[in-house]
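Sequence, please.
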């Protein structure tokens, strides 16, 4: 039996070698396939776990912020609003003009014209700067949140150097001062020019309904927000007021930069890229729409028909039918800065903080800056 089997193998030597090679290859291929499948499964499991951890960390951060009315972010914004309001009232001092008017000066008309421009400018800038402050802080805090997640994950693995230690976070977040300083001054100049263009030729006796006033504000926004549209700029020109065009002044130093400075500059450059994204422009524009809508809502009570209007014309049933002279609208718009930039919790700030578009964008920012690939940049 063995002899016949040996004879068979000798006669079919090549076929047996081929068959053996084939079967061996199939076996090895199967083993290799099983190994690859296990690797893919392990990688997918690791990615799923990492995603779950990031999601938990993000939701935990958001819950922390959302407690007691988005506590941390709300308190941060509200703490900055008095500084913003004071800066606006200092640079656009309408109170000094109203004091002059009480003395019935000879150049009364000229003072009224200045008051007209300043009153509209400062309340419009108040809306712009408050919206910018809310969205910029939300972006910065979620970028920091992403880096904190990566730092925590790295420390758990091998205790590497932190990407965003506390001193870097503090230096990075202090960049908000540009919006409250040079950025605000430049924004005031641009808005004042737009207000002059739209309201400069309108008589103080000219009457405006709330709908007409809304259109005037849209005209001003068109000038301000599309200033550079003819120069091929793909992002909102408002970004310039949020952060300086050039890198942080630290980068201008030829030498002596510490590791902290370098880390901060990296964060600022990444933030600038985020601010120049189309998604950010959309979110900021949505916030501005909400902000100016709230401003008009605040003014609407002054355009309600009086009992005399209703008795004389029973068909008066809309705000569009009530018009006020521009001279009466000026003190109304002038006082709106105290509502927009109030340090007490207000509907204006809360509306901006709780907008779904802002929360969704914040989630995307956090996701982008909490992935392991961020470590490779």
């Amino acid at each position: 039996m063995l002899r016949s089997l040996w004879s068979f193998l000798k006669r079919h030597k090549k076929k047996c070698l081929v068959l053996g090679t084939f079967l061996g290859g199939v076996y090895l291929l199967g083993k290799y396939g099983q190994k690859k499948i296990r690797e893919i499964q392990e990688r997918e499991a690791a990615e799923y776990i990492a995603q779950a951890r990031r999601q938990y960390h993000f939701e935990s951060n958001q819950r922390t912020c959302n407690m007691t009315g988005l506590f941390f972010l709300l308190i941060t914004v509200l703490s900055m609003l008095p500084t913003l309001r004071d800066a606006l009232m200092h640079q656009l001092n309408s109170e000094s003009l109203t004091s002059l008017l009480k003395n019935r000066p000879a150049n009364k008309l000229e003072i009224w014209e200045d008051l007209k421009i300043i009153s509209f400018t400062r309340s419009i800038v108040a809306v712009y700067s408050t919206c910018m402050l809310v969205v910029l802080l939300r972006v910065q805090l979620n970028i920091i949140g992403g880096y904190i997640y990566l730092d925590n994950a790295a420390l758990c693995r091998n205790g590497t150097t932190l990407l965003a230690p506390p001193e870097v976070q503090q230096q990075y977040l202090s960049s908000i001062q540009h919006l409250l300083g040079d950025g605000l001054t430049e924004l005031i100049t641009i808005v004042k020019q737009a207000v002059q263009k739209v309201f400069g030729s309108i008589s103080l006796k000219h009457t405006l309904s709330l709908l007409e006033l809304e259109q005037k504000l849209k005209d001003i926004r068109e000038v301000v927000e599309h200033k550079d549209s003819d120069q091929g700029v793909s992002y909102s020109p408002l970004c310039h007021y949020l952060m300086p065009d050039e890198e942080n002044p630290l980068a201008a130093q030829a030498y002596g930069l510490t590791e902290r400075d370098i880390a901060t500059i990296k964060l600022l450059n990444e933030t600038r890229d985020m601010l120049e994204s189309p998604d950010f422009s959309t979110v900021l524009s949505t916030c501005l729409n909400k902000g100016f809508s709230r401003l008009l809502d605040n003014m609407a009570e002054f355009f309600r028909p009086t009992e005399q209007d209703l008795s004389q014309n029973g068909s008066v049933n809309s705000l569009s039918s009530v018009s006020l002279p521009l001279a009466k609208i000026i003190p109304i718009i002038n006082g709106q800065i105290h509502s927009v930039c109030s340090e007490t919790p207000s509907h204006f700030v809360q509306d901006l903080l709780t907008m779904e578009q802002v929360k969704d964008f914040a989630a995307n920012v956090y996701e982008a800056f909490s992935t392991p690939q961020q470590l490779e940049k």
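Residues 175 and 344 are 24 Å apart (CA to CA).
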